[in-house]
Amino acid sequence: MSGKILAFGEIMLRLAAPDGKSIRESNSFGAVYGGTEANVLACLSAFGHDTKYLTALPEGPLGEAVLDHLARLKIDTSDVLVRGDTLGLYFSENGTASRGANVLYYRRHSEFTRLDEQSFLPEKVFTGVILFHISGISFALSESSRCLAFRLMREARKRKIPVSFDFNYRASLWTTEMARGVLRAAAAEADILLASRKDLDVFLQMNREQVFQELPCRLLALRDRTVLSPNRHAVQLSLLWREGRYDMPEVSFPVLEKIGGGDAFNGALLHALLNGKTPEEAAEFAIAAFALKHTIQGDTFTLKERDVAQYQEKIKEQKL
Length: 320
Fold this sequence. Notes:
There is one protein chain. It is built from eleven helices and 15 strands. By secondary structure, it is an alpha/beta fold. Helix 1 packs across helix 9 (261-274) and helix 10 crosses helix 11. 36% of the residues lie in helices and 26% in strands. The chain is globular. The chain has a single domain (4-317), classed as Ribokinase (UDP-N-acetylmuramoyl-L-alanine:D-glutamate ligase). The protein has helices at 36-46, 61-72, 122-125, 137-140, 143-158, 176-187, 197-204, 208-214, 261-274, 279-293, 305-317; strands at 4-8, 12-16, 30-34, 50-54, 56-57, 75-76, 81-82, 89-93, 102-106, 129-135, 163-166, 192-195, 219-229, 232-241, 244-254. It starts with a strand and ends with a helix. The chain has a nine-stranded mixed beta sheet, sandwiched between helices.
């Protein structure tokens, strides 16, 4: 399908502690760049889509390094704002059998948080766009970025561009009480909702039937993870649409990397839907990408469609 997929969100520098070490114990860190919307675009670019990113970056070497990173992923950065001097960053540790994974954010004063409703011209950024993707994180970072996020969703809908919204709630960024009304309002602007059963219960406070009765949602993806052990997880997926639903059997998979799986799932699901796959085919393809990403270190998933298809076969044979 021709046309660009546009996403809005923050990209950060990730500093990862060595395996088995805590942030406090570490004196060296692996550096990569990532952010949920950028990761979704990276996945879609690898599958052959034209993609464009809206964000803000600082001037100087760090901002230039992020632009180089996005260029390697074939993501259009022509509308990225470059100004100021602060890039958001976060530290991560994988944890061990007795200690869970941990993420520590330093993003409160990044250039992204200073964006406001006038930062982008909708008539420019939405030209040639066929899908707009956004997550709940952009609504949590600052009041001004929240207002911009709402404006972009509404501008997309005004132009009849489908909107994909991932709840992506982060307890370290805001409380459930703060998030509930905001995320429900955002869901009311989306055509595709990417969520968990907890999101329905806690934020929307709706059952599945009410989602289609009260919101403009055309497709609801409910993905839930179960941690079986530090190195093995399981996932269960339900896709629901106005005419039906598909409940995929639970899949268990090995875990080397804990970050980026949800972004690979979102990218793969959107790719499959844009390419005319049935909901059942899209679900199975997206879960294969989700599981496969957990075997790849770093934030981004850049494998090809054939790689995911091969992993699908392994899932069917339970040879993971």
